[in-house]
Amino acid sequence: MHSYDPLRHTWKYDIGGCAWQNTELVPNKWLWYSFLRTGEPQLFYMAEAMTRHTSETDLYHLGQYQGLGSRHNVLHYGCGCKEARIGMATLHRFYYYMTADERIGEIMDEVKDADFSTVTLDPMRAYFPKDEHATHARSGPDWSAFCANWLVQWERHESEHYLHKIKTGIESLKQSPHRLLDGPTFGYDPETGKLSYMGHENYDYHLMICMGGTQVWTELADLLEDETWREMLAELGEFYNLPPAEKSKRTKEAFVGKRWDIPMLSTLIMAYAAEYYRDDALGKQSWDYLLTITNHWQLSQLQPQQVERLYYPYPVSEVQGLSTNTASQWSLNVIMCKAYIGHLL
Predict the structure, then answer these.
(1) Global pTM?
(2) Domains of the chain, with CATH numbers?
(3) Which of 6, 108, 234, 238 could pair with 320 as two cysteines, CB 3.0-4.6 Å apart?
């Protein structure tokens, strides 16, 4: 489930937008990396069940929404947020490569052209009017989810077509005035794979990095051996938590520091930048956001508390301030930061 209700001492299973986690903030990746690190059977069975559910039930398998998933409403398919990142293939490939499960293989192939479904249902339709672009896509989590789907097509089927679409999007971002810092919303043409610059600070930047995009991008950096792409990722990680005045100075007053939120979610891309630039101070700042600073989206208090029997009909042990969003991202970022900047811990 998604969020806990400290007043009723139960999960918000009946409150739209707070009910079911589905793949919001990629809990699948957290669970699979946790299993791969530990080999714990219980983690495998949990991750397997999550994979079965999110690949089948949270995803549209045919029709005009094929390849898009449905977010965390009370009822499946009830949420108006239907996006490619909810069913992206890299969420499920852990299970596929460990078991060769044919159904999961089929589902990963189903989503390869999810970017075309956004023409029918523009992910940014509530924020940007219909214009000269076929549709719109945020660099993350929309285009990054497309890349996740295409990456699987490339690695499983050696598809040059989908590799070309990945490279086309990267080249589009290279041509933007501030590269990956721009947007995050772009015009998008699924026929060509091109992203069209529409300005900067035009939507929330934290969504670029918390829905699995960072993991896809850093993996592509290794696979493509594109030094400019590596530099762009490092630039984003170093830039994300700069003070607004410094953001403005670096961009000749183009940026004002708007919509750069939630430092904890940026810790992996910061860690990537710290390794790239060999900047220990930046790496230590990343660990601070995870382990020391406790004012927003951190796991600061994990001691379970017993609910008084007066308030609930049977014994309840709870951690009131914890959400699955936070648990997923904090845990995943810790795992991956250990890989990049573990020597600074």
Answers:
(1) 0.95
(2) 4-344 (1.50.10.10)
(3) 6
